Give the backbone structure.
Amino acid sequence: MPQLTKSAELFEKAKKFIPGGVNSPVRAFKSVGGTPVYMAKGSGAYLTDVDGNTYLDYVGSWGPFILGSMHPRITAALEYTLKNIGTSFGTPIEMEIEIAELLCKIVPSLEMVRMVNSGTEATMSAVRLARGYTGRDKIIKFEGCYHGHGDSFLIKAGSGALTLGAPDSPGVTKGTAMDTLNATYNDIDSVKLLVNENKGQIAAIIIEPVAGNTGVIPAKPGFLAALRELCDQEGIVLIFDEVMCGFRVALGGAQSLYGVTPDLTTMGKIIGGGLPVGAFGGKREIMERVAPLGDVYQAGTLSGNPLALTAGLETLKILIDENPYPELERKAVILETGFSDNLKKLGLNYVQNRVGSMSCLFFTDTPVVNYSTAVTADTKKHGKYFHSMLDQGIYLAPSQFEAMFISFMHTDEDLEKTIKANYNALVASGK
Ligand code: KE4
């Protein structure tokens, strides 16, 4: 059982100066209880906390660390930039062209791309662009999906909003909320109903093509293609929010895995390699509406800064050079199989959803295909499970409605250790 003395002291102090003691709500351990663990060092698949306890890391900074943290090539590239280039100029730099060209080569939907500093900036900008391009106001999102904390998205949102039981946020005006419609994930009829009720008013449909903020929910076969067809028929901009699943489930993201090409794609996490980077891009005809070429305004002081792009570029180059995806799939299957063997031994029918190296163990025996089936999970049992795993040195997302990420640095021994801990934690969580 790790001693969390220093973490507890720091958390008490943090709460004096920072709302809830954290700079992002889902870190606060609210839904699992207990004290958030203050990390002091990350290396590869491991984290070390301020009390000196080490953990196997399955959060990976919420997705960026597909290669593990502090990858030697990325740290070397950052050192070079710091010594020889600089952190930010607020001017165009060559690296911006390099990453834009590379992204357009890798991601099927990208003909042009704009760099920003977070996933939220990417999704906010993509929706504003779709509204500007179509001249329409409404958007359709999916209950439980999370697209960052932009006002238009905090309506039946996932991730931390769902974790805290506040999927709708105060502060979002009625005018904004009325332009956001929520459909049911994996239910094309629910989308068609909204489209028909709002004929000619829908600017965009935005979806996580692999939902990762309601736990992990794969799109059912044919669902994404049906969305594509509907958007083509209705002149609606189809936006794939690949902030989490992009470069995670495949180098070209979910759109390359499923063979469905959106009009716009939003990106983040992995393309920053642990530094703040987001991006949105897609069809040239749409992207040409972005200022200063077009009239849809979007801007950012630190967009495309040399330091963040260095980490992002090096990450992408490693993914291209080393193609970690087959090995990530092999490791993910080991973990999934180990967990399901444990569930069988214990006579438990909990549900596991997985796409590539992102997965979720739901504490429910109901197949999880959308928000309403995800929330049948027993969050109290999940909380006990979480703490038992933490006590055994396994750091998971402190929420039932988040994903578990395997990195290229997790070894088979690490996976075996995790499977053993999973058995003990399932016992501890109670039948
Ligand atoms: P950021 O603004 O947090 O960089 O990205 C927002 C975002 C947009 N789209 C998707 C699909 C996302 O998953 C996210 C952010 N993901 C959460 C984790 N589920 C970030 C963790 C947090 O909020 O602290």
In short: The chain has a mean pLDDT of 97.
